[in-house]
Each structure stands twice: as C-alpha cells, then as structure tokens.
Amino acid sequence: MGTSIERLLWSIALPGFGQFLNGKLIKGMVIVFLEFLINVQANFNGVIISSFHGDIEKAIAETNYLWLMFYPCLYFFAMWDSFKDAGGGKNSYSFLPFVSSAYFVTVGCIYSSTFKVFGVLLGPIWLPILCVIPGVSVGFLLMKIIMKKNIEPF
Q: Transmembrane region positions (predicted)?
C-alpha cells in the first residue's frame, strides 16, 4: 500500500510521474505531454499565479476554459491509474472517488467565472479545488453503498 500512495502523491505533483515510477514509460510520457499541452493552452500556470496573488478577475480573463475543461479528467485519471497500477485500490469500485472528483472539479471549472461563495468570486483555481471535497465524498459514499448492496462490477 505504501508504494501505491507514493505513486498517487507523485501523480498529484505532476500527472505522469506515478506512471514513470510504475515502469509505464510510454503511458507516463503521453500523460506528461497531455498535461503540458493542456497547461500551456489553458494558460494554467499564469492562472494559478494570478489566483494565488488574489487577482481573481485577471485569472478569469487569462483562462482558456475550452482547454481547462480537459484538465480535471486527465489529472484524476493519472492519479487513479498510477495508484491502481501500483497495487492500490483492491476493490472493484476504488475508481469512484477519482471519477466523482473529476466530474465535480469539471463542474467547478464551468461555474468558476460566476459562482460566488459568501459573495466572493473564487475563480478557476479555488472553486475547482474546493469541488474536490464533495467529489471525493460522493465517490466514497457511492463506493460504500454499492459495496454494502453487493452489486457486481461492470
């Protein structure tokens, strides 16, 4: 389990690194390439910097949402894939927290230019990050319900 957590954490740092550590070099190169492509096209690093500096309006203006929409699925897939390949997630539904998070974070991206929390616009970094919490929670809840009902995997 320690190895799978290590791979998961490296994938959080940069999608594709977990695959490299798992010896899946081609898959890792494809994921790193896609991460860089989406990152550059979405202007993601500039958006992160503006968001961390508190300039949410600038972050929103800098974001290419058509590209940013791809990022959550790639990010959470890379995490799940490296975790699974390293032996983590032994049950058939361990993918659910990752998939659910990808959905919730994508919806967070969609609404990030207009959605306010307590009157504060969070923008394309902070709202999607906050959406990870309900995403993981719903995924684990679904996993628990399905396992309790003993539903067979697909």
A: 30-53, 65-83, 95-113, 125-146
Chunked into runs of 10 residues, the chain (154 residues) has average pLDDT values of 84 94 96 97 98 97 97 97 90 92 98 94 96 97 88 62
Select from 70, 66, 132 the least CA-distant residue to 105.
Answer: 132
Q: And the tokens for 58?
A: 């600038």
Establish if 153 belongs to a structural domain. Answer: no
Q: What single string gives the DSSP state of each residue in the chain?
A: -HHHHHHHHHHHHSTTHHHHHTT-HHHHHHHHHHHHHHHHHHTHHHHHHHHHTT-HHHHHHH--HHHHTTHHHHHHHHHHHHHHHTT---STTTTHHHHHHHHHHHHHHHHTTT-EETTEE-HHHHHHHHHHHHHHHHHHHHHHHHHHTTPPP-
Number of domains in the chain: 1
Domain holding 108, by residue range, is 2-148
Is the distance from CB of 135 to CB of 102 less than 8 angstroms?
Answer: yes
- For 7, 45, 47, 114, the CA distances from 119, given in Å and listed in that order, are 38, 26, 21, 11
Q: What is the pTM of this model?
A: 0.90
